[in-house]
Structures are given as C-alpha cells and as structure tokens.
Amino acid sequence: MRFFWALFWTFLLAAMLTYVVGSMSGIAFNLTTAGILTVVAVIVILLISVVLPEDSKSDHAAH
C-alpha cells in the first residue's frame, strides 16, 4: 500500500510540475514526461526509505 500511495502522489505532483514548466516554456503538456519523472522519483524515494535507518528508541530523558 505504501508503494501505491507513493506512486499516486508522485504522479500527481510530477504531472503538475510537467504542466507548469511546460506552460512556462511554451511546450505542450506531455504525459509521457510526467510518467518518466514519476518512475524515477518513486525509485529514488523508495531507495532513500530503505537506506535510511529506522528511528530506534533512544534513552532520552523525559522532559
């Protein structure tokens, strides 16, 4: 489920980014570019979540 939501929101944000940048550049919207950007971004996001260590319980004093 985590993969689905990451893919869903990344696609929406990538499509929005592709539309805005393309519109500012005078280029027509291309859904293929948004799809490629989505796949690359999701891979990077999931790799970062695998590489980063999980937050272990530390012995911080309660305040």
Protein described:
- The chain has 63 residues and is mainly α.
- It has one domain (2-50).
- It is built from two helices and no strands.
- The protein has helices at residues 2-25, 31-51.
- The chain is elongated.
- The protein starts with a helix and ends in a 12-residue tail after the last helix.
- InterPro entries: DUF2929.
- Keywords: Membrane, Transmembrane, Transmembrane helix.
- The chain crosses the membrane at residues 32-52.
- This is High-affinity Fe2+/Pb2+ permease.
Order of helices and strands: HH
Shape: elongated
Head-to-tail CA distance between termini = 36 Å
Mean pLDDT: 89
Radius of gyration: 17 Å
- Number of DSSP strand runs: 0
- Main β-sheet, in a few words? none
Low-confidence stretches: none
Helix content: over 70%
Number of discrete helical segments: 2
Structural class: mainly alpha
Domain module tally: 1
Protein name: High-affinity Fe2+/Pb2+ permease
Organism: Bacillus benzoevorans
Pfam families: DUF2929
Transmembrane segments: 32-52
From the structure above, extract its key features:
63 residues, elongated, 2 helices
Describe, in short, the structure shown.
The protein is mainly alpha-helical and 63 residues long.
Question: Which SSEs are present, and which pair or pack?
Answer:
Blueprint: H1 2-25, H2 31-51
Helix pairs in contact: 1-2
